[in-house]
């Protein structure tokens, strides 16, 4: 798992070829990649919200209780796993337009790998400044787009031009899923409610 993470970040072209040759199963991907990496933003957010507290940078820290943060973390974790599945389904839908499309499992596996930068960017939530988390999220999203762009042509056995179209469509849906996740995160971690209370008090 760590070899693929490093490979995707440092030498993505070579790593995509290695991943394609492996013919990994969906069960193995989730057990050795998605389940572990998806825990990074959840654990970081749990620590950040219970120990440091959310901050807009003005000095006010808003902390959550351990049980509240635990419940939010569990739901957040399941939501991340579901998001990978949804993006995989989108890739599968787009792939049906081409000859010899990959299976649904292969598309979800591909989605799990392209989400790697987003998972890693979640580490900054351990010190949850809003601007810092947004910056890390944008960087993770940009690198995810890059992985998608260079990986989709060989994955679907299509030209780079066709790959660009699929990449843009998939990324568009992925951004919508990401925005939904960010909005849900704010609600789950109780940040929005506590900001309003702090402003009114």
Main structural class: mainly alpha
C-alpha-based Rg, rounded: 18 Å
- Ends: how far apart? 48 Å
Strand content range? under 5%
Number of helical regions: 10
What does this structure look like?
The protein is mostly helical. It has one domain. It has 10 helices and no strands. It is elongated, with a radius of gyration of 18 Å. The mean pLDDT is 79.
Main attributes?
Yip1_dom; transmembrane; 201 residues; mainly alpha
Task: Please render the helix and strand layout as text.
Layout: H1 2-10, H2 12-22, H3 26-37, H4 39-52, H5 66-95, H6 104-114, H7 116-121, H8 130-156, H9 160-188, H10 191-200
Helix pairs in contact: 1-2, 2-8, 3-6, 4-5, 5-6, 5-9, 8-9
Entry summary:
This is Membrane protein. Pfam families: Yip1. The protein has 201 residues and is mostly helical.
């Amino acid at each position: 798992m760590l070899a693929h993470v490093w490979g995707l970040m440092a030498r993505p072209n070579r790593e995509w070829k290695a991943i394609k040759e492996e013919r990994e199963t969906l069960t193995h991907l989730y057990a050795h990649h998605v389940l572990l990496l998806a825990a990074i933003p959840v654990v970081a957010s749990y620590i950040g919200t219970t120990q440091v507290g959310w901050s807009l940078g003005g000095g006010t820290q808003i902390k959550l209780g351990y049980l509240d943060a635990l419940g939010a973390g569990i739901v957040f974790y399941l939501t991340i796993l579901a998001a990978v599945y949804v993006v995989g389904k989108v890739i599968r839908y787009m792939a049906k337009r081409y000859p010899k499309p990959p299976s649904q499992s292969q598309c979800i596996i591909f989605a799990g790998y392209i989400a790697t930068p987003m998972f890693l960017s979640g580490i900054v939530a351990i010190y949850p400044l809003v601007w810092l988390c947004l910056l890390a999220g944008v960087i993770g999203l940009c690198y995810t787009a890059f992985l998608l762009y260079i990986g989709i042509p060989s994955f679907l056995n299509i030209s780079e031009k066709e790959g660009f179209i699929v990449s843009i469509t998939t990324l568009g849906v992925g951004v919508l899923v990401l925005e939904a996740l960010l909005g849900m995160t704010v609600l789950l971690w109780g940040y929005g409610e506590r900001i309003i209370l702090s402003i009114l008090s």
